[in-house]
What does this fold into?
Amino acid sequence: MSVNYSYRSRTLKKNLPRIFQYFVLSLGVLIIIVPIVMIIFGALKTRGEFMTRPYTLPIPLNWENYAKVLRMPVFWSMLRNSLLIMLATTIGVVLISSLTAFVFSRMKFPGQNLLFNFFTLGLMFPVTIAILPVYLIVRQIGLTNNLWGVILVQTSFQLSICIVILRSFFKSVPYELQDAAYIDGCNAFSFFWRILLPLSRPALAAVASLTMVASWNDLLVPLVLIDKEKLWTLPLGTMQFQGQYGMDLALIAAFVTLSAVPAIIFYIFAERQIISGLTAGALKY
Amino acid sequence: MKKNSFNQDVQTLAQKTGSAQRLQDRMTIVLFLLPALVFFSIFLVYPVFRSVYYSLFSWKGFGPAVDFIGLNNFKRILTDWIFLKAVGHGMLIVVLSLSIQLPLSLALALMVGRNLRGRAFFRTIFFMPYVLSEVITGIMWLILFNPDPKRGFINAILTLIPGLKAQPWLGDISTVLLAIFVVLTWKFFGFHMLLYIAGLQNIPLEIEEAALIDGVSKRQMITYIKIPLLGSTIRTSVYLSVLGSLQVFALVWIMTKGGPVNASELMSTYMYRFSFVRFELGYGSAVAIMMLLISLVFSLAYLRLVRPADYLS
It folds into this structure.
């Protein structure tokens, strides 16, 4: 009896920290999930239900709010604008930052370090802080109320971090490879294009995912540069929509959920790339 | 070392193949750097200098700036108690982040650790809010914080606890910053946790094994081995947290617009208000320059004194 008892108390003692760990972590999961689930459920209720019983399960399911949002032409134009901006920005950032990173990791020229420090300036001037100066320039060029204005600004402010990430990745590609390629008659460009880039696919994917998330979620740049409803992006439109329909919470919930769906889908598929891009970027500081 | 020998190789090779090769290399360098240089000059460097110029004027944004007022804008900033309050709020958020948010992330990262079952699941969930936009997060929490317990979930929970009453969290001067800090923690602790998990993974397993053989307890393992070895990750996350708190804008703008009575005003909302609501672009420029200076001084000091950046070495 007593042996059995002490054995049991010992396993309990051993497992207690584990149980505590799982308890705390599950609590964390609840705190993250509950707000998200509540808004999804809220959108599945009628406006009246949302007011009278906001915390119950949405029974019966009411798809009217989602349908209403999906019938709005402005929702689709926002989705399209956001996608266009995201794609163009990502292509631009990946292209330009890999060219730059290549030069800083693989070539040698006077003033290199100074110039590289110049390129890392963007890390210290986030767009939130520089938005007014940027607005003035974009206005001067005449690109306000133009998706290109947003694309160019987002690209510029995403370059620094991507250059830093890609440079350190390019540096880790063995130099023997470059020697061999040059001996075989490659010039700098064909080494870059045919050997380095294909080898760097994981890093390029990380950089691209990082840029996509940043561009997709950006509110400030479109908010400042765009006021035509036709050109609204999802975050900008969601904010305007919330101001406009402030009373109809169920409809707002549907709108918010639907505008979050692309981000969540993307996150589920590209979690590894997003995470490796973010940690690489952060740890390179 | 490898690099040097390689560069010598390239040099001798270049000398042999003559100036044609060198010219080609130089062309490559120029062509490859050109796009980034153009983007940076147009959208980063030039605007900043332009703003320094405008910050010396009282300018509403239409027509050329003619009303030169010297450093008066800066004088006005430094004597405007709302701006000073905004700086104070920013510092409060930094202090709260460093003393609550980061330790919390670290503790959770240590719990998830190297080989807890369900590790990937926890990581996926905790990081999810980071991927949601600030707009969505803001609207979500705006609903949750509703002062009426019949509508706002947080108050509904609180009223279940005896002795607690529903609070207008976002409408009360004394609680609004705290409420915003809760949302910031909700959104960003997963990111810091991720950094710590990555850092913990970089600790060589041999060190932990050696320590175990020497008979260290779990607690000693954490305080004497894991946390000291996480030093550079912690310094990075502190840096990002401070820089990040300067950048908070959308969340606050959606939830409170800096109110009530400027109780949640941050430098970013202050600048936005003067620049894009009141269109005092001269004054806004001066505020932007102040923010740039603060960010620059902090970054340089931190990188020099506390955490030399990897990319500089």
Remarks:
- The mean pLDDT of chain A is 85.
- The domain at 72-283 of chain A is CATH 1.10.3720.10 (MetI-like fold).
- Chain A touches chain B through 100 residues (CB under 8 Å).
- Residues 2-43 of chain A form the longest helix (42 residues).
